[in-house]
Amino acid sequence: MEWIESYEPKNEKETEDREHLLRLDPSLIATNRAAPYHYTTSSMVVDFEADKLLMIYHPIYKSFSWPGGHVEEGEALFYSALRELYEETGILYVKPLSGGPLAMELMPVAAHLRKGEPVDSHFHINFCYGFVGHEDDTLLEVKDNRKWVPIRELDTFVSEAHMLPLYKDLIERMRGIYEG
């Protein structure tokens, strides 16, 4: 709960999500994936020209999306974001845009299959971090599932319509920090 309590909301939705989470029984929230509400992190990485975004192809959603994943027990949010970013993209060097998360999202996850096993519906309490990176940075075993997507073509790569407004808001937040 400390992560939620200390987060400063940046808009009305974040304020509502934070208030909702603070009203919940704390036993419902954990880093454990079995908890109905559990912590995740994601990363938005722009290139130094701020016109491309590093994204991965997400096979469950059949869409390019931000790199991210579940926070491990005992792991700090920032290091979770860095670990997931490295594991999913192989990028070696990134510069954080701020000392804390860009955003906190309460995200419903529908029941689905993961590696052939059923996963019940649940909620992710996602903390998104912003970074700047070089487009020509070394990516481990560069594959088609990760690429630098031109921001102006985001709609072409992201098939999850509900995520586009979130990505665009985060890009604007990042540009405000980066260019400000």
From TrEMBL:
<dbReference type="InterPro" id="IPR000086">
    <property type="entry name" value="NUDIX_hydrolase_dom"/>
</dbReference>
<dbReference type="Pfam" id="PF00293">
    <property type="entry name" value="NUDIX"/>
</dbReference>
<dbReference type="InterPro" id="IPR015797">
    <property type="entry name" value="NUDIX_hydrolase-like_dom_sf"/>
</dbReference>
<comment type="similarity">
    <text>Belongs to the Nudix hydrolase family.</text>
</comment>
<feature type="domain" description="Nudix hydrolase">
    <location>
        <begin position="36"/>
        <end position="172"/>
    </location>
</feature>
<protein>
    <submittedName>
        <fullName>NUDIX domain-containing protein</fullName>
    </submittedName>
</protein>
